[in-house]
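Need a sequence for this fold. Nothing fancy.
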């Protein structure tokens, strides 16, 4: 019997090395493609939101502001994950980080991670137990600490209870983007700008919480835009200080002395910024400001505008007609609430000098409006607000830059009650940012509605659900297991 011939090897050594090299090259190529795709997806990506509740779209104002930043910002979310708003706050901060990668966010749950919580307390000198649920922004040594309790507006809602009435705080609006963008402006900006409110002539008071005439909320809007506020008296030898970036004259009702008017006009000639608001109370009493504004090409009327087409009770005017101007462009498809406004328009002149200020009427009543004192009731688009701008004249150097003014025929539109009507609050921010030439902040952001989904069940329904979860589902699993065991036994 012949000896069995051994089987020749399936692969020669050369072929084995060839196959191994081929596999290695393919692995390297696949790995390289994966790395390149991940690298490119860092900057070029498409995010899809399966649920509208998880979708956080930053406003154009915030996006423009983030695009102008160059600093690195550290954000510490010192928050309990058991809080109802935690997920909403964390998702919004992640959206900021995605839009601007130099914003780094770290989360510290002071209940689940006490060691890290102690480090945060020591770092930011948090001494009281009440200092919790905080959002801390830090940039180059500047810090801004936000209280998480201020990030939402609440209303009382009655909870169904058979025994006695019970109420709970129901969140209605989320204010996170307003406060977060304000904090970023604060910690990344240079020295805060300063606005002064003129006092001594029955103006609206910035420290008054009076709903009808106080300006406390308007002052808070300025602070959110990184603008410090203070009061200014021009009595005696006082002049407008050099750190005044914005002078606000809010509805004086008595004449301003000539000496003070001269100082106001001097401030404007030096390149100052002015927000002047008039009201119906001083409709028959000149304050003296009318003369200054007349020399700047602005005509303030001693009359009241009635607009039967754009009103609710007959006294107010709901303004929806605007010109194309950076001050009011963000108000597209929005409306303003003015209470018994006066006309404020561009002064009619035949000849205009080359260096004359640029005066533009920016807000109007409807075509059916008329003047309350006009017996003919001539109907037309009466102007209610103007914006004035005068650049630096060649060869003339002003101390403060270029002059800007906004003159409004109603001062109550910024009062505590009216500022929360329609788009008045957003417009308050536009006013300040246009006057201070901060164009990157001229897009609106506002509160976001919070939608809650609640499931109301009776005691019988709750008992049924407990029975299904605690007995039904485990029982079905056990029964299926017994059936499989019995079948295999056979």
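Here you go.
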């Amino acid at each position: 019997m012949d000896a069995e011939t051994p089987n020749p090897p399936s692969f020669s050594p050369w072929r084995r090395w060839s196959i191994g090299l081929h596999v290695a090259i393919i692995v390297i190529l696949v790995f390289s493609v994966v790395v390149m795709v991940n690298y490119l997806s860092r900057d070029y990506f498409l995010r899809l939101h399966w649920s509208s509740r998880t979708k956080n779209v930053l406003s154009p104002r915030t996006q423009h502001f983030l695009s102008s930043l160059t600093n690195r910002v550290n954000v510490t979310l010192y928050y309990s994950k058991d809080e109802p708003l935690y997920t909403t706050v964390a998702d919004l901060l992640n959206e900021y980080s995605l839009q601007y990668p130099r914003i780094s966010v770290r989360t510290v749950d002071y209940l689940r991670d006490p060691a890290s919580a102690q480090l945060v307390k020591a770092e930011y000198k948090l001494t009281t137990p009440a200092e919790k649920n905080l959002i801390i922004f830090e940039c180059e040594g500047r810090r801004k600490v936000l209280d998480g309790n201020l990030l939402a507006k609440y209303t009382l809602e009655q909870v169904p209870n058979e025994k006695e009435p019970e109420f709970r705080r129901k969140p209605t609006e989320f204010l996170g983007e307003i406060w977060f963008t304000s904090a970023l402006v604060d910690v990344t900006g240079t020295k805060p700008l300063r606005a002064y409110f003129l006092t001594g002539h029955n103006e609206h008071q910035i420290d008054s919480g009076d709903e009808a005439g106080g300006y406390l909320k308007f002052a808070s809007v300025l602070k959110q835009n990184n603008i410090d506020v203070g009061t200014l008296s021009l009595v005696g030898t006082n002049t407008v200080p050099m750190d005044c970036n914005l002078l606000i004259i809010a509805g004086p009702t008595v004449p301003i002395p000539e000496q003070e008017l001269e100082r106001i006009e001097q401030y404007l000639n030096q390149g100052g910024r002015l927000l002047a608001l008039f009201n119906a109370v001083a409709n028959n009493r000149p304050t003296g400001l009318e003369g200054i504004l007349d020399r700047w090409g602005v005509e303030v009327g001693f009359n009241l505008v009635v607009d039967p087409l754009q009103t609710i009770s007959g006294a107010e005017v709901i303004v929806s007609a605007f010109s194309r101007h950076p001050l009011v462009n963000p108000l597209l498809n929005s409306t303003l609430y003015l209470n018994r406004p006066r006309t404020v328009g561009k002064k009619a002149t035949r000849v205009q000098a080359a260096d004359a200020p640029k005066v533009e009427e920016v807000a109007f009543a409807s075509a059916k409006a008329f003047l309350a004192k006009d017996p003919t009731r001539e109907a037309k688009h009466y102007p209610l607000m103007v914006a004035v701008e005068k650049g630096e004249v060649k060869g003339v150097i002003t101390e403060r830059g270029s002059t800007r003014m906004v003159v409004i025929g109603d001062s109550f539109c910024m009062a505590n009650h009216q500022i929360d009507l329609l788009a008045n609050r957003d417009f308050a921010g536009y006013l300040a940012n246009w006057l201070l030439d901060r164009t990157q902040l001229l897009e609106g952001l506002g509160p976001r509605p919070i939608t809650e989904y609640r499931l109301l069940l009776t005691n019988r329904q709750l008992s049924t659900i407990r029975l299904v979860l605690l007995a039904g589902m485990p029982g079905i699993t056990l029964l299926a297991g017994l059936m499989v065991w019995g079948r295999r036994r056979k």
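For context: Residues 393-397 have pLDDT under 50 and may be disordered.
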